[in-house]
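Lab channel / #folding
Pinned by the channel admin:
"Please post every new chain as: sequence first, then the structure tokens as a reply. Keep commentary short and put observations after the output so the thread stays searchable."

First post following the new format, from NK:
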Amino acid sequence: MELNLDDEFQTLLLRSSLPDNWETLGVTLNNSTFGGKLTMFTVTDGLFNEEGRRKDNNVNNEDAFFIEGRGR
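Reply from TO:
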């Protein structure tokens, strides 16, 4: 069986599969659309840029919001 998904559907599917901690990227992508349509290039470029930014800033998705308890 061969299934061809058009570019717009693929981008929406990829965009909607992002985890919650990537929501800011999702909003940014939605606001950067040309003519109201996301393109696969826009989404993949945004994902690669965000991944690089997170690596450069040493963001660990699991530990980003962990606050170590301190005694008084």
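NK: Helices lie at 7-16, 23-31, 40-56.
TO: also worth noting, DSSP finds three helices and no strands in the chain.
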